[in-house]
Amino acid sequence: MRRILHTVTTIAPSNIPVLITGESGTGKELIARAIHDHSKRAKRRFVAFNCAGQAESLLEDELFGHVRGAFTGADKDREGVFEYADKGTLFLDEIGDMPLPMQAKLLRVLETGELVRLGSNAPRKTDVRFVSATNQDLKALARQGGFREDLFFRINGSHIHLPPLRDRREDIPRIVRHAITRFAGELLPGAPVPGITDAALMRLTAFDWPGNVRQLLNVVQNMTVTAFGEAGGGAVTLDVQHIPEDIRAEEHHAEPSETGGVVSLAGTSLEQLEKRAIRETLKLTGGNREHTAKLLGIGERTLYRKLKEYGLR
């Protein structure tokens, strides 16, 4: 990780495009933000946009915007993320999922520094630091005809690869402690930062984390919420019992049930973790859904959908 951070601080002051690769959840957006924060554009906007699952027409509108009357319902001009991020950093995640026709339009914008809104013929200047990310092998995708080779060369000015968390376990304790500080500050600003026992830290370090940093952060947030809820205003220390049961069980692949049988929890860890995190946060906030959504870092509509999905009230 030190090598990656060194690369970040080395390339940040320039405007060279950066391509970040790695499995889902490895922290690609965090690295993109770090590049922005160490750049000359740090006081300007950092704008992140995910290209996955976007229809071509919607994607073009999101990226480049439209003018009034461009299509039914376009009752006013709207800027896209390129203009919104002007003079700042634009981060396009999952760029490998972008349709080929849109890749050609993106390449033109990157090469000319100009874009055209939907429904218009007038070019507009754009000035962004361009950072992109993917969990795919774009070289192989280009050979198969699924990604433009010229666009690959254009966005691959500097390449940063993030290995999965299981291959850099030495980073886990640092990530955990940083996350505890962050989540505790969100729960009770000004309160002492909770500690974590060596046993709990060892359990977390031993886990393989198929969801990488994203999954680890979700678990630490869950642990922090649970520990605060149990402490009742007293000193807070995260321990093994605060690790979600499915994570503890998966370390041994299965664990005995109360009836003596074996309950397999493989493949359900993220779903169970999400349900428990929502339940515990609701308890902590006294059922305040707006506060719960804010603490969990999700929108209220997403929270309502999850409550219905998991049968929570």
TrEMBL record:
The keyword ATP-binding applies. GO terms for molecular function: ATP binding; sequence-specific DNA binding. InterPro entries: AAA+_ATPase (IPR003593), AAA_lid_NorR (IPR058031), Homeodomain-like_sf (IPR009057), HTH_Fis (IPR002197), P-loop_NTPase (IPR027417), Sigma_54_int (IPR002078), Sigma_54_int_dom_ATP-bd_1 (IPR025662), Sigma_54_int_dom_ATP-bd_2 (IPR025943). It holds the Pfam family HTH_8. Coiled coil: none annotated. SUPFAM superfamilies: Homeodomain-like, P-loop containing nucleoside triphosphate hydrolases. Residues 1-225 form the Sigma-54 factor interaction domain. Keywords: ATP-binding, DNA-binding, Nucleotide-binding, Transcription, Transcription regulation. One of its GO terms (biological process) is regulation of DNA-templated transcription. This is Response regulator of zinc sigma-54-dependent two-component system. It comes from hydrothermal vent metagenome.
